[in-house]
Write a structure and sequence with these properties.
- The structure is a single chain.
- Helices cover 40% and strands 22% of the residues.
- It is built from eight helices and twelve strands.
- The strands form three sheets. A five-stranded parallel sheet has the order 2-1-3-4-5, sandwiched between helices. Strands 6-7-8-9 form a four-stranded antiparallel sheet, with helices on one face. It has a three-stranded antiparallel sheet with strand order 10-12-11.
- The radius of gyration is 18 Å and the shape is globular.
Length: 225
């Protein structure tokens, strides 16, 4: 039995029913809340392993709820929303969302995102070694192996791939990556990011023009998968 507990915060009965059936059939425990007040209360009394949060709640903006959660809740929060607006997605991710899916969503994709988010949460950042598919990254030695072979990277390229690997499966916005790698003063310098992502793809991807690892999320950022 999967011990992970998921809190679903959504005011649509049909969505809650669909999520309950899908999640429980995959051995997750499910707790439901119909509005922001209930969701915040349930999570405070018994913090779940992951939260599925609808942005269109009847009593409070989902963005405000997300910011409230991030004042104390550090586990994954995946946004489910009918809004497919680039600015809305970027805002949610910058406010601390672990991932963002638009409704209607494919159940298989949602389950994959949940597994990835929970795996990242369990692994945390206390690792000295990160193993993702063909990659092995040693955070102490600052080395990267691909298929067992060392890959020669610059310091910035290493910092970038380590950031991606720590957040495997998660969409990272341009602003977040620029802030983490170059500092707060570089959050608008997206050209820096495009150049270094291009260099990394040339070294790590079999076909840099059709990347399998560093995936572009158009207008938003990148996902390492």
């Amino acid at each position: 039995m999967n011990k992970a507990e998921i809190l679903v915060i959504d005011d649509e009965p049909q969505i809650r029913k669909l999520l309950q059936i899908s999640l429980e059939s995959n051995d997750y425990r499910v707790v439901q809340a119909v509005n922001a007040r209930e969701g915040l209360s349930f999570a405070a009394l018994h913090p779940p392993d992951l939260i599925l949060l609808d942005l269109g709640l009847p009593d409070k903006s989902g963005h405000d709820v997300l910011k409230e959660f991030r004042e104390w809740y550090s586990r994954p929060i995946i946004i489910l929303s009918v809004v497919d607006d680039e600015q809305d997605i970027v805002a949610a991710l910058d406010h601390g969302a672990s991932d963002y899916l638009t409704k209607p969503f494919r159940t298989g994709e949602l389950l994959a995102r949940i597994r990835s988010a929970i795996r990242r949460s369990i692994n945390d950042n206390s690792e000295t070694n990160i193993v993702c598919r063909a990659f092995e990254i040693n955070l102490i030695a600052r080395t990267v192996k691909m298929h067992g072979q060392f890959i020669k990277l610059t310091g910035t390229e290493y910092n970038l791939i380590a950031l991606f690997a720590r957040n495997e499966g998660k969409v990272l916005t341009h602003q977040y990556i620029l802030r983490e790698i170059w500092g707060i003063g570089y959050q608008t310098e997206t050209q820096y990011l495009r150049v270094f992502v291009g260099q990394l793809r040339k070294k790590l991807e079999e076909n840099p023009n059709n990347p399998q690892y560093i995936i572009t999320e158009s207008g938003v950022g990148y996902r390492f998968q």
